[in-house]
Specification:
The complex is a heterodimer. Helix content of chain A is about 35%, strand content about 25%. Chain A is built from nine helices and ten strands. In chain A, the strands form two sheets. Chain A has a six-stranded mixed beta sheet, with helices on both faces. Chain A has a four-stranded antiparallel beta sheet with strand order 2-1-4-5, with helices on one face. Chain A starts with 5 loop residues before the first strand and ends with a helix. Chain B has a single domain, classed as Orthogonal Bundle (MetI-like fold), CATH 1.10.3720.10. Chain B has ten helices and no strands. The chains are: A alpha/beta, B mainly alpha. At the A-B interface, helix 2, strand 6, helix 3 and helix 5 of A face helix 6 and helix 7 of B.
Chain lengths: ~250, ~220
């Protein structure tokens, strides 16, 4: 058993008086797909964002591949280049074409030659099913298409781990599946993934482990089968009864 | 009227200088103003304070005073340049404060997610600013920049009081020589500024349409 890829230990964070993360301990193994679920305001998005330091933490440590997350500066930028992030609101670069969105990081951060970056970019766009849109601007694409570009943009950096912060919450229902399909196939390739989501179907299908959060704490965690069929905590039972009843 | 038409070459020479002052100072103000705006949004507190101090000091100082400080202050510390360059410098320093605030408002108008996405793929603060935020910020601030640069065009007239031949000095020279046609000469000078300002408006209008493409 190799050492885990992502380790959070004793992580606490406050937003003013609000204690949003309480003594979080979580380790994620290489190749593991961890799905984080929980009610709104439970701290799951914040948790996800601390892992590439888009949110700072007050106490505790986070290590990735054995290395503590550095403070602001070049080393932090280098670490982020190895941690893919997919946002709820896509955040594609609005002034760049789809292909440019996917090649900007490799060219500017990793120093890949433009031609090579474009070849790889087109391959990735092919993989997420939007190769034909390469020269369009993000605003000309549907939400589902934009999110798939965002996944390709993150993959273009060859990340060690991919973070998904509610990747389907801003999508029309009919576009959710096209994004989840891409994520499911990514999970099958052995990518380490931490996914914050409300999609229980995805959690059942693709997760190795489900982490349930409430009020800034990890309340329980386990395999999807165990968690969805026999949750231990009352809070998880209550949550599941509300979202799975219809 | 003849006094204007017969001396058109003087006006052309004067307003050519006005245009040079405007263009050179616009470039200087754009570079310095963008730098100051970058300082004001940087993660380094002393840079933020320095940027804010510059804006508050310079924006609230009359342009004439800035001219006096440049023309009489800099030679005191052994900086000696031709008067035309001093004038460009004074105009650049002054206009940069206004450009900085326009650029800062443009930066703030770019969604926070754009910078987060940029940092998430490993770009540094300056790469994020240069490659992601500023290009979008500039597209948003073309209208206020047009106003600032039209003000700059008219502000170049202050240079006439500081040994620099431009539109107003051309006017003064013609008035001195043609006492019977003062009003016509003043109106001709006004028409010169109006024509240049309208030209600048048209150019910025065109620029606004160009940067809208792809959005």
């Amino acid at each position: 058993m190799s050492e885990p890829l992502v380790v959070l230990s004793g992580v606490n964070k406050h937003f003013g008086a609000l204690h949003v993360l309480k003594d979080i301990d979580l380790s994620v193994a290489r190749g593991e797909v961890v799905v984080v679920i929980g009610p709104s305001g439970s701290g799951k998005s914040t948790l996800c964002r601390t892992i590439n330091r888009l949110e700072t933490i007050d106490t505790g440590t986070i290590t990735i591949d054995g290395v503590p997350i550095p403070a602001e500066g070049k080393q932090l930028a280098e670490l982020r280049s190895k941690v893919g992030m997919v946002f709820q609101s896509f955040n594609l670069f609005a002034h760049k074409t789809v292909l440019q969105n996917v090649t900007l990081g490799p060219v500017k951060v990793k120093g890949v030659k433009k031609g090579a970056a474009e070849t790889r970019g087109r391959e990735l766009l092919e993989r997420v099913g939007i190769a034909s849109q390469a020269d369009k601007y993000p605003a000309q694409l549907s939400g589902g298409q934009q999110q798939r570009v965002a996944i390709a943009r993150a993959l273009a950096m060859d990340p060690m781990v991919m973070l998904f912060d509610e990747p389907t919450s801003a999508l029309d229902p009919e576009m959710i599946n096209e994004v989840l399909d891409v994520m499911t196939s990514l999970a099958k390739t052995g990518m380490t993934m931490i996914v914050v989501t409300h999609e229980m179907g995805f959690a059942r299908r693709a997760a190795d482990r489900v982490v349930f959060m409430d009020h800034g704490q990890i309340v329980e965690q386990g395999t999807p089968e165990a968690f969805f069929s026999a949750p231990e905590s009352d809070r998880a039972k209550d949550f599941l009864s509300k979202i799975l009843s219809h | 009227m003849d006094a204007v038409l017969d001396n058109l070459d003087v006006f052309v020479e004067g307003f050519t200088s006005t245009v040079s002052l405007t263009l050179l100072a616009a470039v200087g103000a754009l570079l310095l103003g963008t730098l100051i705006a970058a300082m004001r949004v940087s993660p380094v507190p002393p840079l933020r304070w320095a940027g804010a101090a510059y804006v508050h000091l310079v924006r609230n100082t009359p342009l004439t005073v800035v001219f006096f400080l440049v023309f009489f202050g800099l030679p005191e510390v052994d900086v000696k340049l031709p008067f035309f360059r001093f004038a460009v410098l004074a105009l650049s320093l002054y206009t940069a404060a206004f450009v900085a605030e326009a650029v800062r408002s443009g930066i703030n108008s770019v969604a926070a997610g754009q910078a987060e996405a940029s940092r998430s793929i490993g770009m540094t603060f300056f790469q994020t600013l240069r490659l992601v935020v500023l290009p979008q910020a500039f597209a948003n601030i073309v209208p206020p920049l047009a106003s600032i640069f039209i003000a700059l065009l008219k502000n170049t007239s202050i240079a006439s009081a500081f040994f620099t031949f431009e539109g107003i000095q051309a006017m003064n020279r013609l008035i001195a020589a043609n006492g019977d046609a003062v009003i016509a000469i003043i109106l001709a000078a006004a028409a010169g500024y109006l024509a240049l300002a309208l030209l600048a408006s048209a150019a910025f209008g065109q620029l606004e349409r160009v940067v809208r493409v792809g959005r």
